[in-house]
Amino acid sequence: MKIGIDVTAAITQGGGIGRYTRELILALTAVDPHNNYHFFAAKNPTTSPIPNPIPQAKNVQLHTAPVDERWLYRLWYRLRLPVPVQWFTGKLDLFHSPDFVLPPVHGRIPTLLTVHDLSFVLYPEVFPERLVTYLNQVVPWSVSRATHILADSQATKDDLTAVWQLSPEKVTVLHSGVHARFQPVTDEKKLTAVRRQYQLGDAPYILAVGTVQPRKNYQMLIRAFQPIAQTHPHNLIITGGKGWLMEEMMAEVARQGLYSRVHFPGFVADEDLPALYSGAALFVFPSLYEGFGLPLLEAMGCGVPVITSNASSLPEVAGNAAIQLSPHDPVAWTETIHHLLADPVERTRLVAAGFRQAHRFTWERSAHQLRQLYEQLGLKATTVARRDDHKE
Fold this sequence. Notes:
- This protein is of the alpha/beta class.
- It folds into 2 domains: 2-177 and 362-391, 3-Layer(aba) Sandwich (Rossmann fold), CATH 3.40.50.2000; 188-358, Glycogen Phosphorylase B (Rossmann fold), CATH 3.40.50.2000.
- The chain is 45% helix and 16% strand.
- The chain has 16 helices and 13 strands.
- The chain has a 7-stranded parallel beta sheet with strand order 3-2-1-4-5-6-7. Strands 10-9-8-11-12-13 form a 6-stranded parallel beta sheet, sandwiched between helices.
- Helix 12 links the parallel strand 11 (282-285) and strand 12.
- Helix 2 (17-31) crosses helix 16.
- The protein is globular and about 70 Å long.
- The two termini are 25 Å apart.
């Protein structure tokens, strides 16, 4: 089959869906040398800090549109100009968009759309109003046109069926995986190099990873950290690209008097993350809502004890390998962080459980499952086309 995949996010986005797409296409092309992959990307208007993520394989071609993502999305999703993706990729047998929206597609080929979560529907207050309006227009429209939907978790599938009344048969759960590089880094030179590169200083640290935006609930975490800073030497490191309402986050740091104790080093390169995780005393993930929550598993793979929110998909991902807390209870977070920092036996238990949990999720397994779904959708489409031709 000729399979088209929109890889724009892999090239233009550092974290989140960008990392998801990079890992997925690498694993997919590694397990499938037989199908032909036609990767599509909007023109990147800037020099990306992300190393070329496109797999170098004989069955892979990259097709780039002559306009950047902003203009292309404006044409496709605001003006709904019916320019099919095949104008850029050539003939396809199936098309997969892994980033919420589905471009126009020519003909009756099957289409697959990944909807990572419904946070913009369930928590619109943590997004800019214009973004919520846009997503509420284009995502349901894309879902209605797609042949099949991928959800990152059972929790997201349940949201899709409850909120938009999708048939459960139209939605398949495809968990993310943990790359093999996420394992403990013990080389002091590597650990020190990452500290220096991201200006983390020499103090021990508690780590949070994820785009800095309200949904990640970092303001609550900063309030919970304030008493910890009074009694422990640890700093709080919050890594990730700057999202919307960053100024509110900095205002919370100021209110708590934590300028010297809470650090935002920004985007961390994929290859540096294992050392960053490995150097942490604890990993904390207080998010209000997640479609999956991959950083939990990455931290576990690197041997770090994890405290997570108990919201949405996070219990599904964390299992019994993390302490789960309400994202609305800063006192519980303060008490639990204090307890774990003082209890090496509990930290050891969580580390062992985390290794087991992380090893349950692999990109290779996800890629095999996705390849099988591609082939099922392709076979079904071929069967329907032959039946329709016979009727004619």
